[in-house]
Design the sequence.
């Protein structure tokens, strides 16, 4: 993992060093905690910074036979670090191996290979730096040349810490909210009515019918917009769309308000109408709309009951998305209300579905409908290259808005380097093969666009 890491040609090395290496970062989708950014959270040890909440690593440790007490259980942080160090050599071929060492190199200037033998020394060296100053959350963000961070926020959030960060003259990075109303769409899940009650309180509006509910959502969109939000986000584990009427959905909503479960058909109609309503609002405020599709969540019910969600027991769904997704986009396009939209699927079988579908709804804004970067299980070398190749084959790779972290870790910004190296590797290979001209100016503009400029122009933060 030297200077030519992931770069197999002289052209790729040159393109990376000239155009990609030093570009700033716009992290338009992540799960960082704005309170931790505001407070410049510090870390007592590498386990706290690296392993807390990182279900990527937890899955690998379980696959290596590590007992749960050393993953999410009551073992000490040092014991958990040793368990991860024991696992790292076994992750060869997994992006975790590269990410682990990139983070050690870029943030801590440690070029040793992490394993059981080197673990004690690396533990001491990293912890000394973490507790010695200059390695708080804000410091790590600044070191990574981040300009904009978009967190993931529930509509009922007060955005207290976003406001505080904005008013802090000592921190130049924009930390903006994203509107994530998933809990307001999952009408059959436990907690739905409580969420509606919370929405009622925070919006200071009565919610006794569906019109009230939509008005409350709109008021929260206005509130988020006033606090810098320019992006929404939706987790659509199962893609659906059904034509319906507002009156029909109003009856479904009234049924749910009484505590009744609704049928799958009713749920799909409720989601379809509510999503199209939200899409129209996003278009009105010139937001971008993100759909994260095809996750199969909480597959291990025993572990879900023991340690909860987002702990490493999700996988890839394999539902059909082409017809319902096209219908949803079409419903908005028919009313000239389709916002800028970014589509991600965690199932790589959908690459050509999405890559071709976005071409049916383009126009007005360069790259208006985006095929989002390789997501979750796909954000590794093969997954990133396959996503980029599909986009290039079917659309305009040069208009791609590039990488995001989708992470809860302040050390994850090396993933942008990983991605940018692969962009240069792909384009460099095309040059070496004689498929595109070795026009330095043209290629440089494309690479810097994908790494940074396209996102800056697309979101208009």
Sequence:
């Amino acid at each position: 993992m030297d200077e030519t890491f992931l770069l197999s040609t002289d052209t790729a090395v040159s393109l990376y060093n000239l155009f990609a290496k030093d570009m700033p970062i716009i992290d338009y989708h992540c799960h960082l905690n704005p309170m931790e950014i505001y407070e410049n959270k510090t870390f007592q040890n590498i386990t706290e910074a690296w392993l807390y909440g990182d279900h990527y690593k937890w899955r690998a440790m379980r696959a290596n036979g590590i007992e749960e007490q050393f993953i999410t259980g009551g073992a000490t942080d040092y014991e958990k670090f040793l368990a991860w160090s024991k696992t790292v050599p076994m992750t060869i071929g997994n992006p975790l191996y590269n990410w682990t060492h990139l983070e050690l190199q870029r943030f801590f200037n440690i070029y040793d290979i992490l394993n059981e033998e080197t673990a004690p020394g690396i533990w001491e060296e990293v912890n000394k730096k973490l507790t010695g100053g200059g390695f708080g959350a804000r410091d790590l963000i600044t070191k990574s040349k981040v300009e904009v961070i978009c967190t993931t926020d529930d509509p009922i959030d007060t955005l207290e810490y976003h406001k505080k960060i904005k008013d802090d003259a000592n921190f130049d990075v924009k930390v903006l909210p994203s509107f994530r109303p998933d809990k307001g769409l999952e009408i059959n899940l436990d907690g739905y009515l409580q969420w509606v009650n919370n929405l009622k309180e925070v919006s200071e509006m009565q919610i006794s019918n569906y019109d009230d509910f939509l008005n409350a959502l709109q008021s929260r969109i206005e509130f988020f917009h006033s606090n810098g939000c320019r992006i929404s986000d939706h987790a659509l584990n199962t893609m659906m769309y059904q034509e319906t009427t507002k009156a029909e959905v109003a009856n479904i909503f009234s049924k749910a308000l009484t505590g009744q479960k609704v049928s799958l058909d009713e749920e799909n109609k409720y989601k379809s109408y509510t999503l199209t309503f939200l899409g129209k609002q996003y278009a009105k405020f010139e937001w971008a709309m993100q759909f994260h599709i095809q996750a199969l969540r909480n597959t291990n019910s025993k572990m879900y009951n023991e340690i909860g969600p987002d702990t490493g027991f999700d996988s890839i769904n394999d539902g059909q998305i082409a017809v319902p997704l096209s219908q949803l986009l079409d419903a908005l396009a028919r009313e000239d209300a389709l916002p800028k939209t970014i589509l991600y699927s965690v199932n790589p079988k959908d690459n050509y579905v999405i890559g071709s579908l976005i071409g049916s709804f383009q126009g007005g804004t360069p790259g208006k409908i985006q095929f989002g970067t390789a997501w979750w299980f796909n954000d590794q070398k093969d997954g990133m290259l396959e996503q980029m190749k599909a986009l290039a084959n079917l659309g305009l790779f040069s208009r791609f808005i590039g990488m995001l972290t989708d992470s809860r870790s302040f050390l994850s910004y090396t993933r942008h380097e990983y991605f940018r190296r692969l962009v240069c590797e792909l384009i460099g290979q095309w040059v070496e093969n004689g498929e595109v001209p070795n026009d330095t100016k043209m290629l440089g503009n494309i690479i810097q666009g994908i790494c940074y400029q396209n996102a800056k122009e697309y979101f208009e933060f």
